[in-house]
Amino acid sequence: MFFFADAHTDAEKTVLKNIEAYWDARNTSDWDKVVAMSSSAGMLNTNSDGSFHKPMATQTASDWERQSAGGTGVIQVHASEAHQLNDTTVYVRYYAEGVVADGNGGMKPYRTRVTGVWVKEGKNWVVKTSHFSSAAYGGTHQTVQADFED
Predict the structure, then answer these.
(1) pLDDT of the chain along its 150 residues, tens only?
(2) Is residue 4 part of a domain?
(3) Is the dihedral of CA 136, 114, 147, 75 positive or negative?
(4) Are strands 107-121 and 89-101 parallel, antiparallel or unpaired?
(5) According to the model, what pLDDT value does residue 35 have?
(6) Tell me, what CATH number does 23's domain have?
(7) What is the domain count for the chain?
(8) Which residues, in sequence order, are CB contacts of 10 under 8 Å at separation 6+?
(9) In what order do the strands lie in the sheet with 124-134?
(10) Which of 1, 17, 134, 139 has the greatest number of CB atoms lying within 10 Å of its CB?
């Protein structure tokens, strides 16, 4: 059990700062930094579009650039929490809200809940998994064929 006067361990403080830095990198299309802040052993993600869990993948800057061809939007982190589970694992949860590309050259509002795990690889805390669950005003998703595609 970890107890500190400000209620956060050093690991938790670092991870909370890293969450902000990670989203700053995504907002500015700094894909090299996004990849550097992601687990080199591969990522496990679930998107907020209602699709199924994604297979483990090692991310590259070119993957991010290709996936973001329509624009990155601007996302801000709200109400972030970090809870250290052991010496090398921190569980996080927060809200991500802002605007994202709509696929038609414009932008649309975006709001999601994020839960995830950051792990210590070497001396760095990196994101290992993120689960984005829609907080889009109670919207639901009906399963379609594309849900089964990577």
Answers:
(1) 555 445 689 999 999 999 999 999 999 999 999 999 999 999 888 777 767 778 788 989 998 888 887 778 899 999 999 999 999 999 999 999 999 888 888 888 888 899 999 999 999 999 999 998 877 655 555 556 666 665
(2) no
(3) positive
(4) antiparallel
(5) 96
(6) 3.10.450.50
(7) 1
(8) none
(9) 44-46, 124-134, 107-121, 89-101, 74-86
(10) 134
pLDDT at 67 (0 to 100): 82
Residue 143 DSSP SS3: coil
- Residues with Cβ within 8 Å of residue 76, at least 6 apart in sequence: 23, 96, 97, 98
Phi, psi of 135 (to 5 degrees): -120, 35
Using alpha carbons, list the distances in angstroms from residue 131 to 52, 53, 91, 95: 11, 9, 12, 11
The domain of 134 spans: 10-148
With respect to residue 24, please indicate whether it lies within any of the assigned structural domains. yes
